[in-house]
Amino acid sequence: MRQRPILDLVTALNALGADVRCATESGCPPVEIVANGLPGGRASVAADISSQYLSALLMAAPCAKSAVELQITGGLVSEPYIEMTLGVMRRFGAKVNRGSDGSLRTEPTGYRGGEYDIEPDASAASYFFAAAAITGGTVTVLGLGRDSLQGDLQFVNALARMGCDVVIGEDRTIVHGESLRGIDIDMNAISDTAQTLAAVAVFAKGPTTIRNIAHVRHKETDRIAAVVTELKRLGLQADERPDGLTIHPGTPQPATIETYDDHRMAMSFSLIGLKVSGVRIANPSCTAKTYPNYFADLERLCGR
After folding, report:
1. Nearest to 154, CA basis, from 146, 165, 164, 142
2. Spatial distance between the Cα atoms of 215 and 74, rounded to a whole number of angstroms
3. Which run of H or E residues covers position 104?
4. Nearest of 164, 167, 201 to residue 183 by alpha carbon
């Protein structure tokens, strides 16, 4: 986390009257906060690197002392995450309105308590959907259906374009792997699953190009460069471009994959090992950040 830039979030919080600063000159955590509440007001927030800053400000806004108006600058990546944030906030009584200029105004209503059923994590489920695609098997995830708030469930639509049979029901999603074909896809809205699709693309007929994900260079690692590097380590051809990459299918060779302490690198590249022996993951414990039981669940799914 100390490598993730959050200066835009700190700047926006200060514009709303908070007393926050980065403890170092890096613009990354740790941060120092003087707890005096959030007065409110207007702030601009950049959302072209991460939607998380905007989500954080939105969730805090109902607890401000006055209305909060947020102006989005520089475009918006991973927009489904913002829609999910707004949906959950409204379920707990928040009042958020969009301005004609795209700004978001939140009233100082606070939140009201209630019951809420938490869906399974669609980002985590993407690895098991991908496992079905790669192995030709079938995976059913309960609790993720057509009314899901999570944009990352759209990952299965990418698999459908590649040739998988996909059924999104009322309370479950089913993916059955079939012969895969390469696709050209904009993954800006579901960029957390780009590495997963790259692993699937290795086994497709024809190249796959993933576009409009330049912002993932600012995650736990430069995810575009890391994926290209590790695919080449497996003896595969991959082309890097400023906003994405192209994966050329081939026969992976045994190798030890570097994770760069990125949980998604570990989980995505482990899928290649479902079809190819000799693929090892360095530092598999990095998955503990989001999914500590991932490898145990993957082993159970595969019956190994």
Report:
1. 146
2. 12
3. strand 104-106
4. 201
CA distance 196 to 31: 32
DSSP 162: T
Q: Inform me whether the pLDDT recorded for 90 exceeds 70.
A: yes
Q: Which of 192, 239, 261, 262 is catalytic?
A: 192
Report the distance separating Cα 201 and Cα 49, nearest Å.
25
Q: Per mean pLDDT, which range of 17-31, 192-206, 232-246, 252-266 is the poorest?
A: 17-31
Tokens, residue 214: 């330049």
Write out the E strands in 195-296. 208-211, 237-241, 244-248, 255-257, 279-281
Q: How distant is the alpha carbon of residue 35 from its chain centre?
A: 30
**What are the tens digits of pLDDT across the range 243-272?**
999 999 999 999 999 999 999 999 999 999
Q: Which domains does the chain have, with CATH numbers?
A: 7-106 (3.65.10.10), 122-302 (3.65.10.10)
Tell which phi-psi region holds residue 136, choosing left (phi > 0), alpha (psi between -120 and 50) or beta.
left
Structure tokens at 153: 């469930």
Closest CA to 237 of 260, 209, 261: 209
Give the C-alpha separation, 7 to 68, whole Å: 19
Q: What CA–CA distances, in Å, run from 232 to 109, 229, 251, 256? A: 53, 5, 11, 12
Q: Which residues pair with 168 in a beta bridge?
A: 173
Q: Give every CB contact of residue 286 below 8 A, 6+ residues apart in sequence.
A: 259, 261, 262, 263, 265, 266
Compute the distance between CA of residue 268 and CA of residue 255 in angstroms, rounded to an integer: 15
Angle, CA of 278, 279 and 280, to the nearest 5°: 110
CA distance 110 to 115: 16
Is 262 catalytic? The answer is no
Q: What is the DSSP string of 16-61?
A: TT-EEEESSTTS-S-EEEE------EEEEEEESS-SHHHHHHHHHG
